[in-house]
User: Fold these one by one.
Assistant:
Number 1:
Amino acid sequence: MDPLKLRRVLLILFLGFVGWPMLLIGAGGLGSCRFPAVYNFGDSNSDTGGISAAFNVIESPNGMTFFGHPSGRACDGRLIVDFIAEKLKFPYLNAYLDSVGTNFRHGANFATGGSSIRPGGYSPFHLGLQVSQFIQFKSRTTYLYNRLQSNNRTNIPIKSSIARPQEFSKALYMFDIAQNDLSYGFQHSSEEQVRASIPDILNTFSEAVQQVYKEGGRYFWVHNTGPVGCLPFSILDNHRPGNIDSIGCVKSANEVAQELNRQLKNLLVKLRKELPLARITLIDMYSAKYLLVSKAKTEGFLSPVSFCCGSFHGFHLNCGKKEVVNGTVYENNACKDPSKHISWDGIHYSEAANLWIADHILNGSFSDPPLPIDKACQAL
Ligand SMILES: *[C@@H]1O[C@H](CO)[C@@H](O)[C@H](O)[C@H]1NC(C)=O
Ligand SMILES: *[C@@H]1O[C@H](CO)[C@@H](O)[C@H](O)[C@H]1NC(C)=O
């Protein structure tokens, strides 16, 4: 056999015995999952520009720590979803609603500030609407991609900025939403009424997950809801004596959040049975955030009730806005060092807090099943 032919035979043998198992590992069989894309649904905790694109720009000093300019995030810098993108080695997710300079090659972000699971809250972009946007995104992407394939002499640069149709079923679908169902509920009804609405909130959530599954989504990464009673504005707005726990959070509000999380956990047990091909990881965001607040001092933060930007005078004034209320001028500028505060603006976490939380959740220590994010395709 001549050397060239021998090399070819050896290569074929190599691919036959070694190549296939390597491909399988690459697809998530044994090693890491290598999700090709991420689709995120949520509220301001993971909005990377949606609400800013749709309504008013989130103003400076938002973005001061990391981006150096307002970046559509209600934060001084990066959000947990940004640290997830870094971990998975993707560019930061662009907001679906953002029409300028966006790239959806590795996913899209449907999260928008103020969103709740059920319609009729602070924002029109409730979860069901976000999922409809995703379905439209998927069908238009598929149409455009196939047209570019069949006519591959034109518009090729566009291809580098759109998702691959065959990757929708390999992508990671993330959810971080429910906090506004609680906050809006507390503002407009009693805590007991909010508690009674939990089954309906979760039914609506379940429908959204099932819709994504029907569209081919298989890998789900679900953040439960955080300790809403530990947000500075909740604490400052609490007027019930005895309603503050040992670390300074509002007890009753947190109890409702925990009840929602208990029922969410049960729902996901049920969904794992009903959607046999789904791999669902539940992240106990509540415990991660609560742990951070309880360890504020030892982790280098000031009191959990402090925040860096915006103000509270019995009502909440936005970070970055100069506001005149009854003749009094409020300049809502930022503090000198946002990294000393868990809360950026009384409602949203600072970049430093987001980094701490991301560090603690991404290795799987708050996950059920306890897998790190790059193994979430193996969750059973
Ligand atoms: C502003 O003044 C009006 C009239 O005195 C009062 O009803 C209202 O509560 C005040 N608003 C705030 C936010 O203090
Ligand atoms: C995950 O990371 C956190 C923060 O670095 C660390 O405290 C924890 O022990 C880690 N857990 C696991 C299971 O690796």
Number 2:
Amino acid sequence: MNTQEFIALEKKWGATNYKPLDVVLERGDGIWVWDVDGNRYMDCLSAYSAVNQGHCHPKILQTMQEQAAKLTLTSRAFRNDQLGLFYKELCELTKSHIALPMNSGAEAVESCIKAVRKWGYKVKGVPEGQAEIIVCENNFHGRTVTIVGFSTEAQYRDGYAPFTPGFKVIPYGDAQALEDAITPNTVGFLVEPIQGEAGIIVPPPGYLKDVRRICTERNVVLMTDEIQTGLGRTGKLLAEEHDGVEADMTMIGKALSGGFYPVSAVLSNTEVLGVFQPGDHGSTFGGNPLACAVARTALRVLVEEGMIENAARQGEYLMGCLERIESPHIKEVRGKGLLIGVELHPEAGGARQYCEALMKRGLLCKETHQNVIRIAPPLVIKKDEVDWAMEQFEAVLA
Ligand SMILES: *Cc1c(COP(=O)(O)O)cnc(C)c1O
């Protein structure tokens, strides 16, 4: 079957909630992927940062195969020999007290919201049903009804009401707005260290530090959504480290499995997660031995193979090169590590056409919103490969 035939199948049988580029991939290795017609592409999206470790990383693959042949799922009705080790290694690496394993990113966010609300009632003493959580404009935390209910993106909400109450929206990057929005019933503040889906929006320097101080002073739980920014993407294990802060709760997902399997987690620095008693919350697949084994290796290779440092080094180099492109179309280049956004002027005609032109030159990336090209290759990219990518960006943008 060829590309057009695969696309026709999707069109006939699938829900059309995505509009992918017309490339049908069948194989991946590191930063490279191949389509069904045998063409090779550099992957500069990394499945929205889920394959930070590169496609089909051999060590994660080996773990996946070995564990899949041994034991995949026990449910949490019984214990398994991977979960405890996963907890220990994850918490030691991220300097967390305890963790909660889930599957998708959205589930981690939902779990965090549940824990923080319960903490508000049981510990902070907020009157039942009155807990408020503050979130930011242009946030992206997933696609459940509760989460899209506090999105400010009209399309994400359209047609899905009624929504869960108890959320208040403030501008992103504005610590004073947080200070002003807090009431005695505020239990938590949910924020992305860099807003990924909003178009790689980097807040002003010191923002997270101010936010940390305000949350501590006002007894509000600081929740950082590091599902996209975490696990090395920005050149640190967690993006919050750039500001030298530790959130009370941190959500990770995506690259936690290196792209092999949906694995997410809520990390807790305080005892907020400790409010859960047996039966309060759960997931059939959360904490299963296959997920835990895969995640353990995915974390190990991230550290052992120097991917975080490489993201910092190659990210700085790539960003410098992008800033030097002389192009009438580029409005701004921004980001941290290997999470980079190139914003085009509105007159450039939209980022999509540039992504399509890049695809023809063997480089895959995806527009976010109208005018931003997101560049986020796997963290294993080397300098000469960055140079090759730059040739393609220059050819298309200059
Ligand atoms: C991708 C993402 C999510 C949602 O993760 P899913 O696995 O798609 O549910 C949540 N928050 C952020 C910041 C993300 O980038």
Number 3:
Amino acid sequence: MKQRLPWAAFGVVATLVGTGAGHLVASLLEPASSPVLAVGSQVIDLTPVPMKEWAIRTFGTADKPILIGSVLAGVLVLAAVAGLVTRRRFVLGAGILVALVGIAAFTALNRPAAEVADVVPSLVTAVVAVAALALLVRVERATRPDAVPTSDAPHLRLTDAPVAGSVPPAARRRTVLVTAGLLTVTAAVLGGAGRLITGLRTRPADVDIPAALRPLGPLPQGLEGRYDGITPFQVPNRDFYRVDTRLDVPIIDVDDWTLTIKGDVGREVVLTFDDIAAMELVERDITLTCVSNSVGGPYVGGARWRGVLLADLLALAGGVGSVADQLFCTDVDGMTISTPLELATDGRDAMLAIAMNGEALPREHGFPARMVIPGLYGFISATKWITTMELTTYAQKTSYWEEREWATEAPIKISSRIDTPRALEEVEPGETFVGGIAWAQQNGGVAKVQVQVDGGAWQDARLGPTAGNDYWRQWYLPWTAESGAHTLSCRVVDGKGNTQTPARANPFPSGASGIHTLRVTVAG
Ligand SMILES: Nc1nc2c(c(=O)[nH]1)N[C@H]1C(S)=C(S)[C@@H](COP(=O)(O)O)O[C@H]1N2
Ligand SMILES: [Mo]
């Protein structure tokens, strides 16, 4: 056992150094071709929907680091096996490492936007990993006290002549340890440099976004200042929820980026970022929601978007023909999201956004351009890192989520959330309030929010300011908290008198429904 542990470690260290080198090389060429990221994205693609749902629910936005972590852990176990095998047969151990990297190369080349050059980071990974393994083996053999390798197959022995008996065991162990340690540090430095370079290659902050033709006035003051705990009326970019299938953030150079509008249109057009920024820009306050948001969940946010109306883009392409029934959007990496054409063009402010809350889109939220369509869940509307809009039919093309049996039409269900007090919070007795947010896009927006305490009568809450029907509203209800346990619920009523349903539905396939209810304890 004692003998074997170092060999397993050799395999792991060699793999880490190789991966770090591959990651660095990828950061210079095409970050998505990094062996770690390529394999990670593939794993996400192959993960069954229920498991993905569970990961999002359980880990929230940490679902990606956790997936990357699991992939790495699995790879390292195999790397350890490779190291153990190396003790007897170097060629076999190195072969396992190369095979492992081969899987990464295969996934990197299998990405939709892949080029032949995307194999380079994997090649570098393989070469560096095998070289590191050879170095470790050489150091180990060179410092062994006994000259004779244990293998009974002489032709497989490493050719180095060991230094017989001259090195004391402690010094020998130290040499091996120092070498392995140095290699591990090298791995971290290479991988870290890769990350850093990837980060520096696009800086949305460096991109200027022209003003809208008719800029919106400042948003009215929200309730958050006076009613602590209520979600801000406008969510700052850094706090905005993020949901997507990606592990990394795409690195897009604005100068290389284009948007192609094609398919059933008068003429295909290819627009650069500057072309779009030179069009008439509009500004809209729109609330975005994820279909995976459970009742009371965090995947909803309000922001001010600036960009061009979809209607203007389609007009630029000579209008839509009579065949298309879906707007099929593709992102920079081939991920697809489709919107029923009828919904996208029914007069709502469907737009291609290039700014969020007054700044270029953050990378996490689709830099340099994304779709935003009021009233539709993000998975059928909000394509980030968009590169192509194709006017086509559902008979011809199936988008990513549809292939996974999520709904084709998914209007956002009207809903509301209690932000404060929080579930199971211990509240001080006396005058306080219940507060939160509510959204009911289309159908006249939020008309009313009601709160129920301990199953009693539904009481009308006071509403915060409005920023239009596509935007959520904050609300609060003064509450005299009496000591004991209490149950709080809320519901929204839209402009057409539709009341949020108590009927529970899971997020799959078309969004959760039900009433947000929570329990609090008032101290006594
Ligand atoms: N390219 C791309 N766009 C995407 C997604 C994605 O996985 N890839 N996820 C969609 C989903 S499911 C949602 S809810 C919204 C979330 O947008 P946000 O992360 O900016 O909040 O983006 C949408 N756009
Ligand atoms: Mo979503």
Number 4:
Amino acid sequence: MHPSLLLGLLAGTALAGTIRRPGRPRPQAPTAETLCPIVFDGRPDSSLEPLDFDDWNTSPFNPDYVKGAGLPWSSILQFPDISPPARFDDPTYQKPFEVTINDSSIFNNQRGFRRAGLQFQGDTNRDSPGSSGIKTIHFSLKWDAQRPLNLSHEYLNVWHETADYSANQFNFQAGAILGQNSLARDTTLRVYYSRGSEPLRSVTNALTNNNAGEGQYQVGILRKPTGTSDVVNSGYHQRNLNEGLIYGSVFVEDGEGGCVSL
Ligand SMILES: *[C@@H]1O[C@H](CO)[C@@H](O)[C@H](O)[C@H]1NC(C)=O
Ligand SMILES: *[C@@H]1O[C@H](CO)[C@@H](O)[C@H](O)[C@H]1NC(C)=O
């Protein structure tokens, strides 16, 4: 089954992504170079071991958030072999990672969600370098047939949450969307997209968007329940969840002067 990925995006953030569909062979493609200053780099060094993702000294991400109580990132992340590599990954020293969720993925007693979301180290909730100017978040997604998402549910996969946790400036989502964003619009967001390892192409104009409120990026899975009006605290998920999504080429670059790596 092919994931139908929906964009519900908002942000002076631009988005970039490459999506690989399951079950289609692809030619090997060379890794592309990044062109702009890197603000946050979420491309793990190949030498990192799972336990390194629990340690502030070694993880590219915040080891403490946003995940099920008592579950360390070393148990949540998987490191599958992916070929060809994502467009901006150099497999000689960088590797992709898979974020997984199961029935224990309950953060902060939010019993309606199953979630595991990575935040970049240095992406502080206030005064973050990722929340000002023009920024582009890059990510490449791959479906895991062993841990498929259930697209009858709504998922958040890449997003930016305001510092007061009251809203998200943009969401990259999958599955059946429960509601629509109705944020005010006064700034811009632009989306670039490609399949496989092809160069990214702009697929939107600069869209009006409300990027106010600072906050942080999150990369991973937030699975919403069905059958409730209180998605945070209640609702239905099937039992024995075993779901995951593979990420590569995750980084945020500075788009000052119109710079973007394609
Ligand atoms: C969920 O996965 C974590 C990490 O592998 C594991 O420790 C936990 O027991 C799992 N929970 C369930 C309910 O399977
Ligand atoms: C997928 O989710 C729907 C809605 O919660 C549920 O009815 C269905 O049983 C789930 N599918 C699987 C394979 O668990």
